[in-house]
Specification:
Helices cover 0% and strands 46% of the residues. With 372 residues, it is mainly β. It has a domain of 203 residues.
Amino acid sequence: MVVQPHTRAFSSLSHSTPRPRGPVCPAAMEPLERRELLSGDVSVVSTVRSATITGDDAGNAIIIESDGFGSYQVRSDDGTTTFNGGLPGPVPVALSGTVTIKLKGGSDNCILNGVWLTRPLTIDVGLGGGQVLFQGFTGQNVTVKGAAQGVNVYFQVNPANNQVNGKLSVSACGGSVSAGILNSVIVGSTTVSNPRGTVWVGAEAVSVGGTEYSTSLGALTVRGGAGDNSVTIGANIPVVTGSVTVFGAVKITLGTGANYVLLNKNAWLQKGLSVTTGAGVDEMYLGANGGLVQIDGKTTLKAGDGGDVIAFKNLIVNGVFTFNGGPGNDTISGDTVTFNNKATIDGGPGGDWWTPTAVSSPFFPLVVRNVP
């Protein structure tokens, strides 16, 4: 699936060309002549202790699902992927132990539909990139990795919600990372990272949470490198009634580029929020149209160098709140916002603007600096 541009909350922004930064990732080995294969073959080997599913350098497309008789099978999703040396599939697979999926080269697709795991799962889409889709999935610790061509990961309902009873980690080195967590429970911490590329958590209407169902995370950490990173928590469309709750801390660190952070309707962060962005024209929208957003715990927002746009709307903050706009001509606004603890808004160096509407701080004076 190609990652589509996400819907902006209040305005569109122009994208700048980022400069490389971050640690050096292993380089992909390119053959002298690159040829696309029409179909691929996937090896499936499993015992009661472990299962290993290994692709090749073609574009592998597989579905792991119930066989209808209490066991699991792997079948082709495109009608051309074969198994274990040319078998058309489906082929049986035991999922009682640790599960490792390595899809190697090519643009790969992997779907886990109605799968219940009791041991860790690791999926590596390899150098060619790919997409991983979870539907009605239950598992323990889940790790999804990509490389130079990136990785897309989506948790969707079909028909049951997804649940990860441990940690979720999604990462790539050099390519883009897209993660959509919808109608799911992640009991442990969720980490989405890409040290040298862009990170999208949520795209279009798909985000962390955001339908009539509820999504909850134990904690959330997002780390993006140079590029136009995007993070959406909560519904990004007005008609939905679902909610998202994060029980632990939310930490978002984004690199140089036109970054975008949206904390939208019916979102509740119970242990605070930390957002740091790099140089570039960044946008932060904390709050929503038609829904309430609540942040408990400490909130720290730091925008990098650039003419940033920051808006707070329908927002309740119960912990200490600190915002620093950094250098540049920033535009800051507040509409129907309540700070129930100490709050400081500092525009930083530059010609900044602060436009408050129905902003209250009933227990402590609101401190506003470096804005008219």
